[in-house]
Amino acid sequence: MIRRYKELNEGGPAPIVAMFEKKEEKSYLSLAPVNIMSVHLNKDKLKLKTGQTEKLQASLLPHNATDKTVTWHIIDPTIADITVQGDLAWIKGKRPGRTVVIATAGAFRDLCVVTVHDYLITNK
């Protein structure tokens, strides 16, 4: 930017003084998204009695993945219920049978085979 300054005591033309305003240049570092490389459940088989609840946990690699969304799915919801909270799922046996729980993250998935047995009470 060029500004003109007039000297107050002299009657001549004002000298031209060049002044430069330094503007801060912000450099932005754009990080590429970190994709999920694998998903792993803490159990691959789960045996439950009717009414019993167990926890499954999904672990994602790498730990610094950009999108850590885990989608849970149960093949036969009449055998067991699933309650989901992020990377955790609680599986509750409903009736005897076998079903599969699938955890999906990105393009990867892992599964756990759930077997539910009757709850037996024995008299002694």
TrEMBL record:
Start and end residues of each BIG2 domain: 35-115
Origin superkingdom: Bacteria
InterPro entries (alphabetical): Big_2, Invasin/intimin_cell_adhesion
Pfam families listed in its UniProt record: Big_2
Coiled coil: none
Protein name, entry field: Ig-like domain-containing protein
The species this protein was found in: Ectobacillus antri
